[in-house]
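In keeping with the milestone schedule agreed at the kick-off meeting, the structural modelling team has produced records for the first pair of proteins. Each record is given below as a sequence line and a structure-token line. The laboratory manager (R.T.) confirmed that both were archived under the project's standard naming scheme.
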Amino acid sequence: MQDRPLCTTMPYLHISIALLLSLNIPTTSATRDSISAGQALTIGDKLVSKNGRYALGFFEADSNWYLGIWFNSVPKFTQAWVANRDDPIKNPTSLQLIISHDANLVITNSSTHSIIWSTQTKIKRNNTTAILLNSGNFILRNASNSSDILWQSFDHLTDTYFPGAKLGWDKITGQNRRLVSRKNSISPATGFYCEELDPSGVNQFLLTPLDSFQPYWASGAWNGKYFSSIPEMSENNANNSFVDNAKEKYYMSGTVGEETAVTHHYLDVSGQYKTFIWLEGSQDWVPIYAQPKAQCDVYAVCGPFTICNDEALAHCTCMQGFNIRSPEDWILDDRTGGCLRNTPIDCITNGSASSSTDKFYSMTCVSLSQTAQKIETAKSASDCAQACLDNCSCSAYSFNSSRCSIWHNDLLNLRKRQCSSEAPNSNGETIYLRLASKDMQSLEKHRSWLLIAVATGTIVAALGLFAFILLLVIWRNKIKNSSHIPNSAQYSNGIVAFRYIDLQRATKNFSEKLGGGGFGSVFKGFLDGSTAIAVKRLDCAHQGEKQFRAEVSTIGIIQQINLVKLIGFCCEDAKKLLVYEHMPNGSLDNHLFQSHTTVLRWSTRYQIALGVARGLAYLHEN
């Protein structure tokens, strides 16, 4: 079988990865790690390397069968190499891997004796053995001389790099050892991106699309210790080497068998070179490295007529007037097909002129593709637009800094930029996308309805907010009013009839006790939040409400300087309370009998006795 150009990924970062974790690799007891002449490997069988790290056998993917290598020590199936990635086997019946009569490794259908895949090596000897090494390298060697390797999988890497493999050129045969990404998340077929040694001769690796030389990332030149764009390699470069001699030019990283952590270095479907490490604790692969770091740096990662946004979870979105070409591929992480127009553009060419009813849709805050054609004759935006309409292959134009640029056919690599409201194009430019008149009318109609919806929503939201604020104000006023004692509910003789709940709030649920006696306890409170009052709660008031109110009315008439003034009362069921003005100096008996700090003089005691007598006399006389 002919070699397919496979892209090489560079595992330069796995050097330091081994320092992060040291994992125990479970050893799988395998019946064998090799195939000799006369033996066969069928579906359900596998070869396992002696260290238990890798396994080789047949596996199913995307309803097809492949021969490949995977991580045997990892319970989550992770394919690392595929022999027949572009020659899938539809019918697995009678499938087997054997050493054929010409000493090559072949996949055959035993029932039809047809060869599906072969190593296709010109071998002069008939005695060969195939073995899966601890490094993951599957080799075909001379059975009589173990150092005589006739074929090896390391020369035909797919999307995964194995430590100890060479990445670069064989100058004798012209073979280019490079890695190619998978087609999508389930199919191991050849994908869109590759990584290879720079064909221009610079000692660096490039990430490029497979079908065009459009590098979007470079490792930087090798300086003898590391690649200049990857300075982190300098932390541990003992196992890195770059060789350039008469026969070969290659880079090699790692020493076979020295890795203590299970790492996976590969070129992802996304076009990024990634390194994952297996964590036993979480039983999953954990990403620790990616280049380029930004997904939108990858060339055409979203395909034509899309916008890539690094800040969004879904990096790729179709432009206005376009829909996804293949939703099935997008689900499988392959978005390189991009998007298709909803309506073909209207363009008729008559000789050297063309006519069109197409319109332009403006997209702001984008970074533009560098593949534009400059139109020097267009001195204004209208001239630039007309230059695009006059060309049936023109798909968009921009007029920035008094320069006209137009793009032909597929529009690639547009990237969303973050712009401020004060300067909409502070970090990007504006491009005008060519759309059919029908699509523009639909967009304008949608935009009108959107504006109406936004305006209506804004008005409704404003009214709702106003109503909420109004209700909040009313509620706060109600709470405020209910938290103060009303002084306008006059009963008779200026006495206020209080509600029990008002007195309960005023006294903070009767929390500050001033004193007590045979008829009840006295508590401090505040009238209207500021005027101090004394509330006496009668615990032994057995008279009815009519008699209680009559007594309160009688007491309320009393106005004498030596008697405490009654402000109001409360009479709700069994709850009976009297509200007096607060005397800041406290109860008289405290000063006469319980004061330990101040001893009243006899002259003061005499005046107190006269005051009490006058109060008693007033009560008797009135």
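The second protein of the pair:
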Amino acid sequence: MSHMTRAHRSGHRTRWAAAVAVTALGAGTVRARRRLASLPVLDPAGPHTPAGPHDTAPPPLPGWQLITAPGVVADEATLRAAVAHATREGLRVVDLIPAHLDAESVLGLLRLLDPEAHRTDRCAPGQGAGHALLVAEDIHRRAGLDAEPPPQSVAGLIRLLRTLKEYAPDTTGWAIAPGLRSPHPDPARRAEELRARGLPPALLSAAQLAGLALLAKCALSEPRWGAAAAALYWLQPAAVLSPARGLRPAGLARATATRPLRSLSTALRTLATPPAEPPRAEGTAGHAAYTAELAAGTDRFFEPRRTDCPWCSAPDPVVRVRMPDLLQAKPGRFTLEECRHCGHVFQNPRLTLEGLDFYYRDFYEGLGGEGAALVLGRMSATYRDRAELLRPFTTPRNWLDVGTAGGHFCNTARGVWPATRFDGLDMGEGVHEAARRGWIDTAYQGQFPDLADRLAGRYDTVSMHHYLEHTRDPLAELDAAVKVLAPGGHLLIELPDPESRISRLLGPHWLPWFQPQHQHLMPAGNLKQALESRGFTVLAEQHGAAHQNNADFLGAVALTANRLAPDPLAPWATIPATRARRAARSAVQTLAIPCYAAALALDNVRTALARATDGGNAYRLLARKELG
């Protein structure tokens, strides 16, 4: 009886899994067809001169540059049609997609690229086919491409488009080019191309293998739903691409018939590809520098522990949470303590300036710069919500974003407030890159309190989004905002909420603790009191609307996986990167896949509840500096 009950439960779970797979595959197929239909198709008109077999040099294009991957050839009619399309649509960068691109490459691109949404989403990462790019000369020059050799691979063009989209955030487009000839894809380069898109090859391949195994189990155990799921997966290339306006994927029938075997082979090949390593000289130099710095230990990175609260001076704070560096896995342990009187949470002992430099290094810039940019680039909806908060109260004219990093918020906020001047201030070099891209008008690099006298009274709006928690003295930062704001100006602040109940449930694995970078976490009541004492009136307070999705359960899984198996190739790693350690990291990341899936579902529920109850993991305050 017990055996029958277990079998019944197993069959019930399989049936549900198969039904979910059918739903997901069906939705993905419909989404892919919709996205494909939104891709314009170039229609070369007039005299047509086919390119000869040895003719690889494009014709001259006044005001434009054509960048192609090796072996890609475009005829003159196609190029003239591309220029006409770009001019007509107001585009400065166009990714040209070969009409004969293989089916799996097209499907992979359509999973990442929503042409209509990404055209207007100023922070959306540039995703393209990686075969040919038409670039306006002014963008080519501003991006610094005049002095660089062209990319020598599809991966290089994929990476280049991501850069160019940053310089043309709302003037980048895509078009199918029937006259574009390209070589067959090289399966051996798949891992490189996935990395160029900012995707983890090993994790994606493991997920692909797990999906294939699930489909096989469903097909064998649950003939009705399982067979439907397997058939939908098998026939998806034909369902999406046949018939497709403008596209004629090479070998579509063969790709559809052999899809499961091809997917299995591709996933196994990609999984077996060694992880990318930095250039030997660069990696060796980085490792040597970190090794020398760590030789003296990490104790010197900390100040003496304080015995009172830095916010209200009450004595005897208590330990809230202790943890290692779960973000980068650099050596060191960190303690957050909580004031018994006001609830202020602070790092104790606090990092010194030298310690902050050590732990910030290679996070937002350097080795970690690309990953940080990807995360920041996927928050467009949050950026718009922040900018929209001002709409009932004011029309901003001169806005200073403090802690702007790469200027992602300002880039998106320009779409909400197109007549506003946006300036950015940050400690890192990225603020200057933001100015070169045109995301901000003026870049200020340095500490806000040090620059406040220079900027006194210049701005009617100042924002600090997830900035105050990084500072050594938040009250001094608020004093600087008072100086910089003109009377009647507005201050917008967003912070992690240390009073979030989920923070106690997840303990050290609650992502917003963000150690060792976060120095202070202020309850909303404390911050409101500090603002009011400085002559501000709080106009709006948001909790649920400020909630950061995937920062709770998904973040906890990511931190736990990184804690169990840190990256052995990191230059600060203190243990040799043996083959066994690399395999252990891959195994942990693979085993975490179902945990990521469950965490994603939990976070979606958590976000819905946070919005409904106005209780999330972060909060926003909008305050006005009163006249006088």
